[in-house]
Design a protein that fits this description.
heterodimer; A: alpha/beta; seven-stranded mixed beta sheet; 7 strands; globular; B: 467 residues; five-stranded parallel beta sheet; binds iron/sulfur cluster
Chain lengths: 216, 467
Amino acid sequence: MEKFTVHQGVAAPMLQINIDTDAIIPSREMKLVSKQGLGEGLFAGWRYTLPNGREPSPDFVLNQAQYQGTSILLAGDNFGCGSSREHAVWALKEYGIKAVIAPGFGSIFYHNCIRNGILPVVLQNDEVLALAKHVQQNPQSNQLNINLNECYVSMVITKGNAAIEGTEPQRFTFSIMPAQQAMLLEGLDGIALTLKSKSKIEDFKQAYQRQYPWLA
Amino acid sequence: MDRTLFEKIWQHHLVEELDDGAALIYIDRVFLHERTGSIALKSLEADKRSVVTPEHVFCTMDHIVDTIAGRGDNTKVPSGKNFILATREACLAANIKLFDVNDPQQGIVHVVSPELGIVQPGATLVCPDSHTCSQGALGALAWGIGSSEAEHALATKTLRVSKPKTMKVNFNGELGFGVSAKDMILHLIGAYGTAGGAGYIIEFCGTAVDGLDIEGRLTLCNMAVEFSAFTGLIAPDEKAIAYLNGREYAPKGKLWEQAVMFWQSLFSDENAKFDHVIDIDCADISPTITWGNSPQHACGVNDVVPSINKNATQNQLKAMNRAYQYMDLQPGMALKGLPIGAAFIGSCTNSRLSDLRLAAKVLKGRKVASGVNAICVPGSTTVKRQAEAEGLDKIFIAAGFEWREAGCSMCFFAGGESFGYRQRVVTSTNRNFESRQGPETRSHLASPATVAASAIAGCIADVREYL
Ligand code: SF4
């Protein structure tokens, strides 16, 4: 899995709350038994003018000039709620999203992100709004910087953007479970990691099956 | 030290505490379905890894398979056949028990697993499906995961899990006339919001929970995920034990006795500490229905569409306005009497025998209003058979309902069948998200009895007038 340590990229605001996995990747876009080929279906219901079409809808944030090359999403609370479909994360990844920043996430979605090298960042609602305001108001400085070693997100002020040069970029810290931080920082494959404990698991299983033989 | 039920089960399954703060948890059973399971099996194979205990893994065809009579591998969902064929092939290769398209035990995973005794008290069960929380109703630690985590569970018999916090939700008192488990869970989410359970494993307790039968408890736990909980759980009691007795995959003979003895130790100790406790007075719960595009937009069937709270944040304001617009409703409008175009009884929330019996009680001798597309999809082929043996199918059909084969069906839209553009549906399912049941379908979540009553009335109805 790809490591996540630091990342700087364009951030796009999608601040509505409860964006569910079906909105991230509609069921109808999951056509193959594959983790690939999902990027095109990302946000398909909003991104294109027609349900099964591919003509970009000009209103949708990721289609706007200012947000070309977006790699960070700024989202509302409970992002990724709903169905467990990991396709939502595979679609984001294929599109090029490296991190999602929101006040809260759907629990399964959060774990799916970690498993696929996407960083889910939990910040306070007003902090997310401050970041969103920054990228919305400063099209030339619409990038954010995320550091997972030190667990912070900061605004990037591009030189030459007279409007905001000289202002102090804001920086927000976040917390993440050490287990999840480690997975991302090192790009670990959970299965390979766990299989290091193989003999321990085997011993546990033996004892477990003696104690709970009806589950053996 | 007094411990909660969750802590006991966690401890029984703890292989090791990992130095990164997570724990390695032993997994007793894995259930898969053709939508997300096929990809897990396929990707496992591609990585040259194998399923360590295939005898503990089960798979069913429920999500994509058609629910119309005479169904086969072809589906109305475009490219659905790919999933069905891939699943069959992968299960065969991995030696996994599959409840295939026309298997007499086929059905929705969370209906099949309890009814065959696959999920058991005190066991851990995972499935790449968010409504796996339903199965906590039998006292198992059962939760939904993603496909990659399913691969992990299949290949290692364990999962790396960060321990959730604990919450107890007490439903005190008795349920009122015409009020069922679905109304309880909608009421809870309506009162505390969809984020109310985030980060918690929830144990449902209280007299009203004790009073529910197992099927009602499955309904209650089903929507723990709509409450954002890690999962839901109910301590196994005599009812749970009686429910499992004689089921195909439940222990038999001496093992049964041993298991029962153990199951009787599965409860939260009297002074066990929960991180959070919520108390609900069941006298406050009436037949409940959602009005908006989120499960938290729930209110009593006689209430009006709520207006925006004065202290609402910008985001909440936007969300409410979007909900009104999407549902084509205005604050202050009465829900009761709102005309509907369709009625759906089905899904892992409410498609078990007791649900169908209750709906049939409402439907008996009555007719679905003209212009209402009414459909009933039993949760499993077993449920369907049992219902037919009691003659319930005849009641549904005589009333004007379509009577289908088992599966998820129109609980969700995958490009196949739907209720139609912007159709207003009263539905016994669990999600009223935008376009969940079809392009811009307007879904109102309610109990199967309320769905039946509304189908008859042709508009949202108070089931108490039909019982
Ligand atoms: S019935 Fe609906 S909610 Fe339940 S498993 Fe199937 S698609 Fe998911």
